Amino acid sequence: MLVHGVHERPLIPRYFDLLVFLIERRHEAVHRRDIFDRVWNDVIVSDSALSQAIRTIRRTLGDDSRAPRFIRTVSRHGYRFVFPDVLEEEDDDEWPHAAGGRSPEADPVDTTAVDPFEPLLQRVTRVAKSAADEEEQREAAEVLHTLGTSQALQRLGTRPRHAFARALLRDTRWETPGAGVVPIVGQPAPIAAAAALVGLRFRRAARIAAARWVGASVGGGLAGLVGGAAGGLVLVVAPGSSAPIAIAAVLAVIGAACGGIGGAGVGAGLSVAEAITRSYRTISLVCGASAGGGGVGLAVEWFSRWSLSALVGLHVNAGGGPEGFVIGGAAGLGYSVATSRLGGGLAAPRGRQRFIVAVIVAGFCGLSALGMSLIGRPLVGGTVHAVAQLSQGSQATLTPLGALIGEPDFGPITRAVIGTGEGALFGFGLALGLTRRP
């Protein structure tokens, strides 16, 4: 708890943790990297998130960045807590409890002004010309929340650029203790406000989202590589198989390509959805992952059918669009469930927790792949088997794998087992790549 006298000065938990961390290491300048590792250790946020946190703490303490009494910026390094008179006492439950409400001296704005709202509203509705202007606008929006969210929205009305200002107020309410609700649906210009909100959030997280997209693609590709190679080796040693050892390399390349493309699509949808949404997170993640997986799946399905038909005259019922849509949605749902307690950034759990997230996503993807296999939709293995059956002299048919399971051919049980394994391995690699912390 942060109190001034007997009055509480509210801070969101991560900002409070940051203040405590700076006080604990007040005898040195704390590097930004160390702050991210300590305060945002389970999520990834942009550099501007730290600047916003410091700005909020300074405003709460009544500090000034130009003449700091509490927190000083160390150029190209980080921050240092510089207030000299810090006393540490044992917690003996004798500290005065926070009184209800906030004291006038805790208010960060000039209460003597005739109209404290108007200058701030003018600032949030103007066009920002630089990054510094954007940060000033965010600070103005945060102060408007402290004055009163509902009154600020009422005063905002439908003046020019009100849609952008509403989006900014919506975005900053998550970092402002006591901020009220900022609705968009049912308000003036809801589409413009929603578009502005998406733009605000994605600009701040675009670089992180791009890195996570690459990680998801690499993770899916490696999972496909391992799965294809393992399947090829099992096929080589299966009873009755005449497949050469080279088939393992061929299937590994096919698996890596399919996994990488699928990971790119699903990972892009997940990354963008997580970057731009704070509320309705589960719905957004499922929709984003489904759209990404379905989009690349349809493209791969069309290209596979067209190329096989044009080059070798084969007409194969190749999987793609529906499978990508369903498995992508399952990945989004599993990821949402596994990271539901992480907030304030893009989830990046570490160690055992990261492994648990990957296992949960793998389970959801495996179950969805099982469902697709049971209704006859081919995944990668099923498509390879279908192509091999139609190709004269091919040694890549997966019939010998059926014998290992007890089926005379590549039957429904074999398809289900292989499909479930493909989906689970893809989900595991996707989640590990997506949550990789730079």
Brief characterization of the structure:
It is built from 14 helices and seven strands. It has 438 residues and is mostly helical.
How would you describe this structure to a colleague?
The protein folds into three domains: 3-81, Winged helix-like DNA-binding domain superfamily/Winged helix DNA-binding domain (Arc Repressor Mutant, subunit A), CATH 1.10.10.10; 108-188, no CATH class; 205-434, no CATH class. It has 438 residues and is mostly helical. The protein is elongated and about 85 Å long. The protein is 63% helix and 4% strand. It has 14 helices and seven strands. It starts with a strand and ends with a helix. The chain has helices spanning 13-24, 32-39, 47-61, 117-125, 131-156, 162-172, 190-237, 246-276, 281-312, 321-338, 351-374, 380-390, 399-405, 412-434; strands spanning 3-4, 7-8, 30-31, 43-44, 71-74, 78-81, 346-347. The chain has a three-stranded antiparallel sheet. Helix 1 (13-24) packs across helix 3 (47-61).
